[in-house]
């Protein structure tokens, strides 16, 4: 781990106004972590813009959030695998037109095709993972940086994975992409170590998601907690209260 490590304050919990009047963009919004972050940010007062490639699943999350009494989110279908730079520019322009601001991004979208030795790794899966997990977050963040820099306080949160495991055999493109993403976070922070835009990484503890079920197929996934605690930590990083964690990875694993 090349990034400095920070920890979530022991007594910190998001409040109903932690993200009040802020606009937050969540990628991979209908996935396990993405959906939890979307709900947590809405509970904290944010207007949540949810992206993902499957419009129907975004609509199902939209309906569920309204049924739970959460503030109305915004749906913006976006396929991180096929989107062009112009698609990201259109998204940023739409945010500026509709809201006049953007206060944060949580990059929860991820591509993982399963464990495989390099000799058997499908090239298409390799290219897809590197693109969705590294290149697309770069392109989306770059397109949104003018808006983020107009805010008084803004944050971009990148989700990492356990580097102690991903350096091992069979993690292939997913392991390589998360290592590259960590380096991208470090560079982006150095270029934005002052001013309104904060750059952070989030390293979850094991949680109950489809990605973990696919990677650890021998594990009883129901024994793992839901992504709610990780989502609350994402709200912390999106809030001004995390200023001291700027440029660091918020490590949620046990000490």
What does this structure look like?
This protein is of the alpha/beta class and 255 residues long. The protein contains 8 helices and 8 strands; from the N terminus they run ββαβαβαβαβααβααβ. Strands 1-8-7-6-5-2-3-4 form an 8-stranded parallel β-sheet, sandwiched between helices. Helix 4 packs parallel to helix 6.
Features:
255 residues, alpha/beta, eight-stranded parallel beta sheet
- Our count of helices gives 8
What kind of oligomer do you see? single chain
Biggest β-sheet, characterized?
Answer: 8 strands, parallel
For the CA atoms, what is the radius of gyration? 17 Å
Arithmetic mean of pLDDT:
93
Give helix and strand order, one letter per element, not per position. EEHEHEHEHEHHEHHE
Strand order of the largest sheet: 1-8-7-6-5-2-3-4
């Amino acid at each position: 781990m090349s990034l400095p490590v920070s920890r979530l304050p022991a007594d910190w919990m998001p409040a109903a106004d932690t993200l009040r009047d802020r606009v937050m963009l969540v990628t991979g919004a209908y996935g396990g972590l993405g959906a939890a972050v979307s709900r947590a940010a809405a509970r904290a007062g944010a207007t949540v813009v949810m992206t993902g490639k499957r419009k129907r699943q975004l609509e199902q999350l939209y309906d569920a959030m309204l049924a739970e009494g959460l503030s109305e989110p915004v749906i913006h279908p976006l396929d991180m695998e096929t989107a062009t730079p112009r698609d990201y520019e259109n998204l940023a322009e739409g945010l500026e037109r509709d809201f006049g601001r953007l206060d944060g991004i949580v990059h929860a979208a991820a591509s993982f095709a399963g464990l495989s030795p390099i000799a058997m790794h499908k090239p298409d899966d390799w290219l897809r993972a590197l693109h969705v997990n590294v290149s697309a977050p770069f392109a989306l963040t770059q397109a949104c940086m003018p808006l983020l820099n107009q805010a008084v306080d803004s944050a971009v949160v990148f989700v990492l994975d356990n580097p102690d495991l991903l350096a091992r055999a069979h993690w292939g493109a997913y392991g390589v992409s998360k290592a590259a993403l960590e380096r991208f976070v470090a560079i982006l922070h150095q270029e934005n170590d002052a001013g309104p835009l904060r750059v952070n990484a989030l390293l979850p503890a094991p949680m109950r998601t489809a990605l973990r079920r696919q990677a650890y197929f021998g594990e009883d996934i129901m024994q793992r907690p839901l992504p709610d605690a990780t989502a609350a930590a994402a709200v912390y990083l999106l809030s001004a209260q995390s200023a001291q964690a700027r440029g660091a990875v918020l490590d949620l694993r046990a000490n």
